[in-house]
Specification:
CATH architecture: 3-Layer(aba) Sandwich
Radius of gyration: 17 Å
Order of helices and strands: EHEHEHHEHEH
Bound molecules: flavin mononucleotide
Strand order of the largest sheet: 2-1-3-4-5
Shape: globular
CATH class: Alpha Beta
Helix content: 25-40%
Strand content: 15-25%
């Protein structure tokens, strides 16, 4: 029997409807970096999962678990166990993709658990996890990521997760373009590594 303690867990969420597009390429590099730096990574490709949008019935008020029985249940369990989250989405109309937003809304169960069931005050920043947000977009505008960042920052907060870093990539339109951007690939790999290094350095990791 091995005496090795389990590696810290990072949940990687791929939110593009394109299976092998730019978001997938960048996330793949970040996952490679995180894995090589000592974390185990649990990947979820939202496009291939059965995920209902939030129905706002607040079944989660009972025990902090969403009552809709679909693939969100496994994501909830993994997030609960994780020390890190990498969320990756393309920018659609200055926001995250619909697949990503559905996942974010379902995580209202964590918000309910934190504020209503555990009674933690708003503004409480006792971080349990570290987060990295990756976004891919076609254009160049200065405010290109502002909408997504506002909502992702608040999402991570509901998950007791500090938004430790972001990788915001402009100028990616066709599906294979990130594969020809060594600067962006290297940044994704490095940010995955850095996230894992911070996590593994934490006491108890
Ligand atoms: C519905 C839709 C909306 C989009 N909106 C924007 C946008 O607001 N700004 C932008 O720069 N690119 C926009 N794009 C382009 C994508 O962000 C870009 O192609 C990105 O690289 C896609 O990532 P993926 O290959 O991972 O799917 C949009 C694309 C689609 C399909």
């Amino acid at each position: 029997m091995s005496n090795e303690s389990p590696k810290p867990l990072v949940v990687a969420i791929h939110g593009s409807p394109r299976r092998h597009g730019n978001t997938s390429t960048l996330l793949g590099e970040a996952v490679r970096g995180a894995t090589e730096s000592g974390c185990q990574v649990s990947e979820f490709h939202l496009r291939d999962l059965k995920l209902s949008p939030c129905l706002e019935i607040y079944g989660c008020k009972k025990d902090g678990r969403c009552v809709i029985k679909d693939d969100f249940q496994q994501i909830y369990d993994q997030i609960d166990l994780a020390q890190g989250i990498i969320l990756a989405s393309p920018i659609f109309f200055y926001a995250v993709s619909a697949q990503t937003k559905i996942l974010m809304d379902r995580c209202q169960a964590f918000w309910v658990r934190r504020h209503w069931l555990e009674g933690r005050p708003y503004g409480d920043t006792t971080w349990k996890r570290r987060g990295l947000f990756i976004a891919a977009a076609a254009s160049q505008g200065q405010k290109l990521f502002d909408g997504a960042l506002l909502s992702v920052r608040y999402f991570f907060q509901a998950l007791d997760t500090e938004l430790t870093d972001t990788l915001l990539c402009r100028g990616l339109d066709q599906a294979d373009e990130a594969r020809h951007r060594p600067d962006q690939l290297a940044a994704a790999y490095r940010k995955g590594k850095e996230l894992a290094t911070l996590i593994t350095a934490q006491p108890g990791a």
